[in-house]
């Protein structure tokens, strides 16, 4: 008897952005919210980035030099996401180690115990980097998940008598500052006044920054070679064992680092992220599923494969009531009081100016992307605009939007994608990417 070709027909992937989920969502019955659920449940694979952890009592909050937020959720939120229709998750993000190794390992244990496909974290690097597999009626699917921020505690391999380190799968970068002749001279003079080592052969180490003499002023990033080699090898291995290979990229690195995180430049990501995503396609990935910036980034069609550089938020519930460790209060001068009102200002911008309102809108609006494959090749991509009112006490869950609001979201995404040569048309409130 001949074996059935499982990839001969249609296969549907639905990909979303970040889920910061701390409360139940299955209680909501809005029509436009349930339509989002229908889109997810109709897919063969529905992917999400789990941007929180379930530490239970196994972890303790780790120290952070930037005490912005520690994420922690009750166990039932995983059941809520499964109810929503998700069957594949990335666990590799900047909150994976919020409650140290214990919190990370407990979260992964819970996902593994339920039997849901998850990737990106582990007891050692090879486990964090290993593909997660999901068997479906229409083929076997592999997921590899990476995180681009080096300070987010990457996993490590054992070496000799030294044990490995729990953590996440890193895809870090090397960064150098390029300065023209005038700028390089001025910085060299500052280095001399501070008693730092001077330039050598057109290169300067200034307070930990690698600076090079150039014909232009720029910040250049490129993939860190060991991470690049390791992840590309994992993708190539997954290609041999799966009909579809997807790579999740959690990214906080924008084009111009070092300025306000939620300023306008967050819409444009760092060059090394683009380089890695294209290399991942070359290594055998069928699609890149990006998230992390909490706002939409452009979509590129590279050699016929979609690269979603940033899918924004999918669930963004208000986490003012989320338990916070002592460090959070100390950083805000509230540590001497047992109970205190929330301080002014938060992780998200205020609504003081029109620019602030525009930024908040970007955090509360996004899309759900549906990719239809036929015979393992990308055939159609649909983009459904969504919105979540995260400032409301029971807000933060997504619902489909139409009319001017939906068109504004798709028009913004179209503008960002145009930089990659991608054309999006809007038909009856849904975006569609024209494939060549």
Summed up, what is this model?
The chain has 436 residues and is α/β, with parallel strands linked by helices.
Please provide a written account of the structure:
The protein is of the alpha/beta class and 436 residues long. It folds into 2 domains: 10-172 and 233-433, Metallo-dependent phosphatases (Purple Acid Phosphatase, chain A, domain 2), CATH 3.60.21.10; 174-213, no CATH class. It is 26% helix and 27% strand. It is built from 10 helices and 22 strands. Strands 1, 2, 3, 4, 17, 18, 19, 20, 21 and 22 form a 10-stranded mixed beta sheet that branches. Strands 6-7-13-14-16-15 form a 6-stranded mixed beta sheet. Strand 15 (299-302) and strand 16 (305-308) form a beta hairpin. Helix 6 packs parallel to helix 7 (271-283). The radius of gyration is 22 Å and the shape is globular. Mean pLDDT is 89; it is low at 1-5 and 343-347.
Unreliable residue stretches: 1-5, 343-347
Give the amount of beta strand, in percent.
Answer: 25-35%
Multimeric state: single chain
Q: Identify the overall geometry.
A: globular
Using only CA atoms, what is the Rg?
22 Å
Which CATH C-level class of the largest domain is it?
Answer: Alpha Beta
What is the terminal-to-terminal distance?
Answer: 38 Å
Count every helix, treating DSSP H or I runs of 4 or more residues as helices.
10
Name the CATH superfamily classification of the largest domain: Metallo-dependent phosphatases
Helix content: 25-40%
Number of strands: 22
């Amino acid at each position: 008897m001949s074996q059935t070709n499982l990839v001969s027909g249609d296969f549907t992937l639905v990909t979303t952005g970040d889920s910061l989920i701390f409360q139940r969502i299955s209680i909501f019955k809005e029509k436009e919210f349930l339509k989002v659920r229908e889109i997810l449940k109709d897919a063969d694979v529905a992917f999400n980035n789990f941007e929180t952890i379930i530490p239970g009592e196994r972890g303790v909050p780790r120290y952070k030099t930037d005490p912005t937020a520690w994420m922690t959720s009750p166990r039932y939120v995983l059941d809520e996401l499964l109810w929503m229709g998700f069957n594949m998750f990335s666990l590799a993000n900047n909150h994976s180690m919020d409650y140290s190794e214990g919190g990370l390992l407990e979260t992964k244990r819970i996902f593994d115990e339920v039997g849901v496909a998850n990737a990106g974290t582990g007891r050692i690097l090879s486990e964090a980097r290993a593909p997660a597999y999901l068997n479906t009626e229409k083929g076997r699917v592999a997921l590899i998940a990476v995180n681009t921020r080096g300070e987010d505690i990457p996993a490590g391999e054992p070496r000799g008598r030294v044990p490995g380190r729990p953590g996440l799968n890193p895809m870090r970068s090397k960064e150098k500052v390029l300065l023209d002749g005038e700028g390089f001279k001025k910085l060299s003079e500052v280095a001399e006044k501070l008693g730092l080592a001077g330039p050598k052969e057109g290169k300067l180490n200034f307070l930990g920054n690698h600076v090079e003499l150039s014909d232009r002023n720029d910040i250049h990033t490129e993939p860190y070679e060991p991470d690049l080699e390791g992840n590309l090898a994992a993708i190539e291995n997954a290609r041999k064992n799966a009909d579809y290979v997807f790579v999740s990229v959690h990214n906080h690195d924008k084009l111009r680092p070092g300025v306000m995180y939620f300023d306008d430049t967050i819409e444009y990501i760092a060059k090394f992220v683009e380089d890695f995503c294209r290399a991942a396609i070359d290594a055998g990935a069928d699609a890149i599923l990006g998230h992390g910036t909490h706002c939409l980034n452009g979509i590129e069609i590279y050699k016929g494969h979609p690269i979603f550089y940033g899918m924004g938020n999918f669930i963004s519930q208000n986490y003012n009531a989320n338990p916070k460790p002592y460090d959070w209060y100390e950083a805000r001068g509230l540590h001497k009081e047992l109970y205190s009102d929330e301080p002014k200002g938060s992780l998200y911008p205020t609504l003081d100016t029109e620019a602030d309102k525009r930024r908040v809108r970007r955090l509360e609006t996004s899309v759900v992307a549906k990719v239809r494959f036929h015979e393992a090749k990308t055939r159609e991509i649909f983009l459904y605009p969504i919105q979540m009112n995260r400032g409301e006490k029971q807000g933060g869950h997504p619902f489909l939007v139409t009319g001017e609001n939906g068109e504004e979201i798709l028009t913004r995404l179209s503008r960002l994608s145009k930089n990659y040569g991608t054309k999006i048309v809007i038909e009856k409130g849904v975006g569609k990417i024209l494939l060549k």
